[in-house]
Design goal:
20 helices; elongated
Length: about 375
């Protein structure tokens, strides 16, 4: 919210109208020309690109959801500075010109500084000019993120991350709200070379966020490419990542990898002594996490993860809990078969009829019969 900031150039001014028109047509020459004009006026001008002044008009008809209190009424302003615009477009010569004529590199307007803008756009020359011009490499946005937290693309490794570290940026500066470091960001995004750079620069591999998340934990919970995540986790473990460090919900990296049906990652964690029988806050084992995901991730072959966990000593589920489990993953017969194979005796009772659909139950009974289980027919509840 920027409603308390008084802009030097309002959205209704001729200058901003020309600027917005140039944005719409992507007339970069005009944008740069307008920015250079500001040197003679005010190189640190606060520019209001848009606002919601219409909401202040007492005659305006507000949406019913707002009137009923179902949707909040928030006044919004889009503010920026000449340096931020130059950094966003990669106008290095214009940016250098602005800096030479008094533009302040650490001015935060609209939530960010020009350095944040440059790193978000992976602009190497802009990042270099800003840092040489006095930009603070550890300056945070209004959301509490440093420029390092904004290096989220492969391109940003050489263009921004390395440059920031060369100019004194802290390798493991935590964000203000979640207390996550740039290593958390790199691990979640499967940016292997970023993660290696941060670790070589002294980042704490076991730094925990306010939610108890470690870089290894966020990597195991990520939905990035499995092979890339495996490489990230191998790197983190080689630097001493604690494989059993759990978050505030008592979920370990193994719980998260199992939930995501990551075969290779589950194997890697177990090879590094991950505790296969740890319970999370909801009383779930890693094995339970697989079964909860089996129906929606059938194409990832959850039965393989179930078998891996059982082979590494996972305790089986309480037999009386099987009807509830089967109601979730009976549509994944291979998973059910692997699970059933871990029991020497399965007490199939009439209670199963109440929790499992008739067709599914019949298919399970056939499966039990084929497996030569003793309880291939329904028995009265004991």
């Amino acid at each position: 919210m920027n409603a308390d900031i008084d802009p030097n150039l309002t959205a209704s001014s001729d200058f901003v109208k020309k600027l917005n028109s140039a944005f719409v047509t992507d007339d970069q020459e005009m944008i740069e020309e307008l920015l250079r004009e500001l040197v003679g006026m005010n190189p640190n001008a606060i520019i209001e690109l848009s606002n919601d002044d219409w909401m202040k008009d007492p005659s305006v008809h507000l949406p019913p959801a707002v009137l009923l209190g179902l949707h909040p009424l928030q006044y919004k302003q889009e503010l920026t500075t000449p340096l931020r615009i130059a950094a966003a477009y990669g106008f290095t010569h214009c940016l250098q010109y602005l800096l030479e004529h008094g533009a302040q590199p650490n001015l935060i307007v609209g939530g960010k500084s020009a350095l944040h803008e440059a790193c978000e756009n992976s602009s190497s020359e802009c990042t270099e000019f800003l840092l040489k011009g006095g930009a603070d490499p550890d300056l945070r946005t209004e959301e509490g993120l440093s420029a390092m937290h904004l290096c989220k693309t492969p391109k940003s490794l050489h263009s921004c991350a390395k440059v920031l570290l060369e100019h004194g940026a802290a390798a493991d500066l935590p964000s203000e709200e979640d207390e996550e470091t740039a290593l958390h960001v790199a691990s979640r995004s499967a940016l292997l070379h970023h993660a290696k750079l941060y670790l070589q620069s002294g980042a704490d591999v076991n730094h925990t966020s306010v939610h108890g998340e470690t870089p290894l934990g966020v990597a195991c919970a990520s939905s990035q490419d499995p092979e890339e995540l495996l490489q990230i986790c191998c790197l983190l473990l080689s630097y001493g990542a604690d494989v059993n460090l759990a978050d505030k919900q008592h979920r370990t990296p193994l719980h998260k990898a199992a939930h995501n049906i990551q075969h290779s990652l589950v194997t890697l964690l177990l090879e590094h002594k991950a505790e296969v029988n740890s319970f999370d806050h909801n009383g779930r084992l890693p094995l339970s996490c697989v079964l909860h995901s089996a129906a929606v991730r059938a194409e990832q072959e959850p039965h393989r993860v179930v078998q891996i966990l059982l082979n590494h000593g996972s305790i089986t589920l309480w037999p009386q809990a099987l009807p509830k489990v089967l109601s979730m993953c009976a549509a994944e017969p291979k998973t059910v078969e692997v699970l059933f194979n871990s029991y020497t005796h399965i007490p199939v009772t009439c209670k199963w009829e109440k929790t499992i659909q008739a067709e599914t139950l019949q298919a399970l009974l056939y499966l039990l019969h084929d497996m030569s289980c003793e309880s291939a027919e329904l028995r009265p509840t004991e």
